[in-house]
Amino acid sequence: MRKLTRPVCPHPQSLVDRNYKHPLNKKALNDSTYGKCMYCESKVTHIDYGDVEHIKPKAAGLFPHLAFAWDNLGFACAVCNTTKSNKFFNDAPFVNPYNEEPAEHLYAFGAFLFTKNGSERGEITIKEIGLNRPGLVEQRTEKMHAIATAVNACHRINSAHLRQAAFDALMDEAGPDKEFSAVVAAQLRASGIHADASAIAA
Ligand SMILES: [Zn+2]
Question: For residue 74, which of 44, 116, 111 has the smallest C-alpha distance?
Fold first, then answer.
């Protein structure tokens, strides 16, 4: 998970009309995550269309009054959205990457996310949204092997100039548009390669 910036709502009238899935609004949310799930950082648009996510559940008895509130909408993969479902814990709400810095609650170590500084919200977020589910761990592991191979290849480039260019390209893999960027940023740091501070997330 990494910090996101909430875009301006491009079509507020649709929310007034009780439509939270207007294509313009969904596209703005999708663009704000670079087509990734706001929770697990999977690229979702090439496997499904992604879901408009209600950060606080819209179910009856919970937050139905927030069903059409722009600040309560996000973009998530179908698995995270389904796993999260109507869960909500008043005393420890899920980490909301649009409103806060996830790195204060979570950190990546290897292919797993862990709770930072005992954060109960971080722990509940990992557990209840399934951020260490087997499919994710498998995909992150594959990504980490590819990064490790690329790091070694960079080190073996003889020309200092070409080597630096290769490292710079590798650091792009921790950019906000890249899948599992928080995991990759942590791996690059552990490899002694420092991406710029803005690329570092959980
Ligand atoms: Zn997800």
Answer: 44
Ligand 1 center to 112 CA (angstroms): 14
Surrounding residues of ion ligand 1, Cβ less than 5 A: 37, 39-40, 77, 80
CA 75-80-82 angle, 5° bins: 105
pTM over 0.85: yes
Query: For the domain that residue 26 is a member of, what is the CATH number?
Result: 3.40.1800
Token pair of 27 as six digits: 């596209």
Q: What residue numbers bound the domain in which 158 lies?
A: 100-194
Q: How far is the CA of 145 from the centre of ligand 1 (A)?
A: 21
**What does the pLDDT look like over 123-156, one tens digit per residue?**
999 999 999 999 999 999 999 999 999 999 999 9
CA distance 54 to 163: 45
Note whether 170 and 123 are same-domain residues. yes
CA of 35 to the centre of ligand 1 (A): 11
